[in-house]
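re: ur question from yesterday

yeah so i grabbed the chain u mentioned. its 331 aa long if i counted rite. heres the sequnce exactly as i have it in my notes:
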Amino acid sequence: MRLHGRGSPGTLRAVISPGDVVASVLPVYLLIVAGVVLRKTGIVRREHDEGLMRLVYTVMLPCFMLDKILGSTVLKSGSVVIGSVAIGFGLIMVGILIGFVVGRLIGLERGTGMRTFALASGCQNFGFTAAPVVEILWSTGTLALLFVHNIGVELAIWSVGVMIMSGDRGIPWRKLLNGPVIAVTGGLLFVALGWDVHFVGPARKTMSMIGVGAFPLAILITGCTITDLVIAEKPTGRIILGSFLVRLVLAPLAILTAARFLPIATELRQVLVVQAAMPAAMSPIMVARMYGGRPAIAVQIVVATTALSLLTLPWIIAWGCQWIGVKPLLP
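ran it thru and got these structure tokens back, copy pasting raw so excuse formatting
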């Protein structure tokens, strides 16, 4: 990685090559490939998925999140916390709006997959793929802030996203009462009250050990799931092209523009650099299945953007770091 000064005096711009990014984040994609292999060989069967993911969501992931949040100095600022949630919500709304515009351009209409396309292409992966990349490139404080940012994303998907998909005004608030959201909310309360300093010793170490495998295991299962989705759905050219334009070109530009010009914490800028490079999230597949959308379209978008992101992610992160002026923690 080469560093040199650019822009205004005293501003250090990080010039990181796409090759550096590939070398750093490749293990995440290799875990997805490993999941594909495990599914193909029958070592991990479909009937295993539900139990494993329940373990991840209800036990391992909350432990991991709580371990990273406790002691995080950046989360002591109420304005940073509120701003992160608001930006997480707002940028998903921007992504969905871009999805509607591009959906119209490729000939989609309401009743032919427009709403599903807009939601699926407009929502970036904010969890299992994003968190390991954030942890590799940035500090623990940035990872903790990602979890706070994700509350806004979850709120956007399960409120506005559901209303868009279903055409109703009802919001399934119970979907937000899950292990990760409870862990983040509880962790923020402990940090705000200063109680996080008491979470030390063997109990904290045990929590850390439980949580450390959350993302590797979840990414493996993601690879298994993607294998099932590829088999189940045949690709459609205009959906793939449109989702590429939304998720890997226009939405990244919007997210990076926000990261550069909004008055936000450095750690949140770092979060947004990674969010800009992410493929589509898998949550809209579930929303489409539950609320009368077209899951086949969401599946195509997830599979296509995940595969293409291996090529685009290094360039988006490298250019984003240089344009915004943030320094990755790479050798």
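noticed a couple things. The chain has one domain: 2-324. also Residues 1-14 have pLDDT under 50 and may be disordered.
anyway ttyl
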